[in-house]
Amino acid sequence: MAPSPPLEANAAALPDTITQPIAVVNERLPWRHTFISLNVRNFRIFAIGHFIAVIALWMQRIAQDWLVLQLSGSVTAVGITVALQFLPSLFLGPWAGMMADRFAKRKILMLCQSVAALLAATLAVLALSQQIEVAHVYGIALVLGLVTVLDQPARQVFVNELVGPRYLRNAISVNSTIFQLGGLIGPAIAGILLTAVGAGWAFAANAVACCFTVSMLLSLRTDQLHVSSPVAKRRGMLREGLNYALSKPTIYWPWLMAGFIAVFAMSLPVLLAAFADHVYDAGAGGYGLLNTLVALGALAGAITSARRRELRLRSVVLGAGMYGLMLCLASLAPSMPWFGAAMVLAGFWCLMFLTAANQLVQVSANLAIRGRVMSLYIMVLIGGQAIGGPMIGWLAEHANPHTAVLISGGVPVLAAASVAVVLARRGQLMLKVDLKDRRRLLRIVPSQGRRQAAAAS
């Protein structure tokens, strides 16, 4: 990557309202304040609706992937389904971010959830009437991707409108906890439903949950929202957002790591379907169990991240590297219990990476431009899965699942190591091993040249 232009040079070309700094709270919260943002009434209502919606969404995802696998017998087909759902984010993400900056986020979310309910109901009718085909799932996945591309940046920025800047970091962690707790419950319920009554009822549950989310959004007290002024439409808005982001290392380095993770390591449902069906012969119940184990680790990661004291680039790089390492270990697992244990650890480090990257990008961008910045981040994170889904599915089917998961973890490990070296050289840092201090065996400290320069100054 070419060196980024100086922050001052880029900032000078942008309005002052865009480049004002965002305050970051660094104190460690007491345990009773781990989820302090839930004290805000609007956010508490939003969180309840989001929790129910996430459970149903996970049920639909598991049912959808397993249904495609059963209808086609192909892991590649599952990867294509994932790609179609994420492909719109790759091409339309920046446009959606501009919409999030220009229009009311709450109305955007209500529109998106209403359309999502209609799509889920269509899947339910087709599945319950025994008329569903792979082509139907492909088409609905693509339309759902168009909904998601508009929903995600608006949802990310709307969290700030619910809690304000004071509780933003905590609210992001709470959102991650809710998503992973839903991921813990949803796959388990989906596995039971798939075995007992089929995929159709999982789709129906998601349709009802989307309607419930709309009702929760309608019940919010609009006078208590921290609504930011809409940005007037003008030429060069997307380029302005890109230039702003590239001027800040705390935004573009998380983008880069998110790209590697998205393409190679975010297609776990595809890999888990391959292991459940082709390696361990565990069926739909085993597939749901493996997804639940990933969510269990991710839930622990979300709670841990809520208590993170500082936002640093090293946290992003460490999380990405450790996530990749856990996937590499999973490729060597001799049995399903060991593979499941590796998935718990993988889920933990995946969430540590995602929350660190999300928080760092959000607090580094001012509200006036945050929608565009977050849409570009989501474009990388979700759009990368449109590329990685079919690729990893093809590897799992034509090589073998173990090779696929080894590549999925190995590339992010190498990327994290390379970025760590670049950042260490730019910051004149080095890794120190202290055998006398067991609690801090490994430490990152200034290099001798940097210490000498500091002493001279």
UniProtKB/TrEMBL annotation:
Pfam families: MFS_3. Coiled coil: none annotated. CDD domains: MFS_MefA_like. It is found in: Cell membrane. InterPro entries: MFS_dom (IPR020846), MFS_trans_sf (IPR036259), TM_effector (IPR010290). SUPFAM superfamilies: MFS general substrate transporter. The chain crosses the membrane at residues 42-60, 66-87, 108-128, 134-150, 171-194, 200-220, 252-276, 282-303, 315-333, 339-361, 373-396, 402-424. Residues 42-427 form the Major facilitator superfamily (MFS) profile domain. It is a multi-pass membrane protein. The keyword Zinc does not apply. Keywords: Cell membrane, Membrane, Transmembrane, Transmembrane helix, Transport. PANTHER family: INTEGRAL MEMBRANE EFFLUX PROTEIN-RELATED, STAPHYLOFERRIN A TRANSPORTER. This is MFS transporter. It comes from Arthrobacter humicola. The lineage of its organism: Bacteria, Bacillati, Actinomycetota, Actinomycetes, Micrococcales.
